[in-house]
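Hey Z.,

So I finally got round to the zinc ion thing we talked about over coffee. Here's the setup:
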Amino acid sequence: MKKCQDYHCNKLKLCITAVTIVLILCNWGFAPHKELHAVAITGLPPTIYRFFKSHQTELINRATDADKRKHGVEAEAARHYIDLDHFKEGIEPCSWFEACETFTEDTLQVRGVLPWNIELVYGNLVHEFTQDSLNTGRVIRLCADLGHYIADAHVPLHTSSNYNGQFSGQTGIHALWETHVYETSRNSWTPIKLEASYIKDVRKWVWAIIKKSHNDVNEVLTKEKSVREVENAPEGYGYRTRGRTLTLVPTSDFCDAYSDAMGGMVEKRFYMAAKAISSIWYSAWADAGAPDLSLTVNHNMRDSKNGLVRFFQDLLKDQLEHVEDDQSQHQQKLK
Ligand SMILES: [Zn+2]
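And the result:
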């Protein structure tokens, strides 16, 4: 009997361990990345809105391509983060070559290359926009990647070596902040009207975003601890059906308490990211000389309003079905 109990106990422990691993490996979930692109389109000026809107399906579907590439491209993982705390001597906006001279490329690949990668993709996008014969597929793919990296730059934990709370006894906080708080609070967010603005100096702009994100790391960590350690703290984890599986995830009450403690930081950063994505797409087009995109509008686009409604209806379903695929995204980052 004891053996049997031990067996079940071990099996339960194994399940909890497996679920924990699943939880700690999550990234900005599929749904937030996709929704960010959908919202970013709404902030574009009329001159380019129609082009982006007509290609919205691909732009949204490809919002997570960059994360999927981590499975097959070894260098991809480092493009999504930068561990600013590892630059003890500090680091100011600089070119990739300047950074390599100061820190060596090998060191940078370990600490993360997010700001330089954004600059690189931005340059590629501007170049594509300047082509006489626009390669729409390539433009949309670059826009999707660029939007993804900009979104990651707005996540405080993408700027810290303690990216999953593994050094502070808070393992799993990455997914809690990026995915679970979004899922539980999204319906109560106040919609914001976005307006893209032209970015004069992309390098300075990107570094300012990343440094602001890094300034919030402490709050992200301390507020989680304060919610967990308070008397009558909400139950931390509970079972929820996700797709076809029963999964152990943070409870809604815990997510709500954490979100409140942070003063709605996830919502604020989501809209900041959406505006930033809109602005960087617009600026790339402007820096390319504002080419006429009317000939490359996809005239097969479905009715815009209905298309967006369908998109949001499918969003949750999509998130639930793909959540399992999202688990190994930070695997390569585990050191
Ligand atoms: Zn990412």
